[in-house]
Amino acid sequence: MDELPQYKRIVLKLSGEALKGNIPFGISNETINSIADQIKKIHSLGVEIAIVTGGGNFFRGVKGNNLDIGRTSADYMGMLATIINGIALQDILESKGLVTRLISALEIKSIAEPFIGRRITRHLEKKRVVIFSAGTGSPYFSTDTAAALRAIEIRADILLKATLVDGVFSADPKENKNAVKFKKISYSDVLSKELKVLDSTAVSLCKENDLKIKIFNISGKDNIFRSVIEKDIGTLIS
What count of Cα atoms within 13 Å lies in the side-chain half-sphere of residue 30? Predict the structure, then answer.
């Protein structure tokens, strides 16, 4: 049976931790190439793809306090880290024959375009892979929130979040062996139970705009591709 995508337009959130793979810091060549191969495979099915990059493999804004750096400055440093990841992903994707556009919420004309909604929609309609970097461009907002915001703005069918766990659990599965995985869960339950799989602001945005979220483990073989094809992978928040 032919593989058919469940969605026409997706936003894929890639954390910095996902990009570093098994290395302690930076970008894993093996991992980023695997991600790019899967994105190319999804693209070949006619799916319109936008990606939001995190920056935790280089710098996470909330860790700025460890360096006696103020939160605002630390968050801007984190945004710059997401741009580094965006540039790397763009280069790898284009080396595999895909046409891309790197978008930055911070003005950086020599590298990336600004966010203009109609232009982004046009890029997607022309089957260009869009990469969103620099979060929302404002401090105090996570890249999860940026991913939710961009997905709503471009009218994506779903927000896919690639993480290092298999989905949403009743507790942290790394700390609690008895944690139960949810196949489906409501926005309200994620918020009321304070399940930390996604920033609460991002979940609230998705709830208000009826945007589905799928949380899945990036580590499994072809799991990004499978998240677009299969219903049962990960956890669906709706």
Answer: 5
Half-sphere exposure of residue 131: CA atoms within 13 angstroms, side-chain side: 27
Please give the residue range of the domain that contains residue 229: 9-237
Whose tokens are 């190439």? That residue is 33
Q: For the domain that residue 84 is a member of, what is the CATH number? A: 3.40.1160.10
Whether 84 is in a domain gets the answer: yes
Return d(Cα 219, Cα 235) in angstroms, integer. 15
> Which parts of the chain sit beneath pLDDT 70?
1-2, 61-65
d(CA 96, CA 60): 29
As separate numbers, helices (DSSP H) first and strands (DSSP E) second, the chain gives: 8, 10
Look over the chain and give the mean of its residue pLDDT values, rounded to a whole number. 93
Q: At what angle do helices 29-43 and 71-95 cross, to 10 degrees?
A: 60
Token representation of residue 33: 């190439």
CA 168 to chain centre: 16
Count of alpha carbons within 13 Å of 234, Cβ hemisphere only? 28
Task: Report the Cα 225 to chain-centroid distance in Å.
Answer: 14
pLDDT at 65: 59
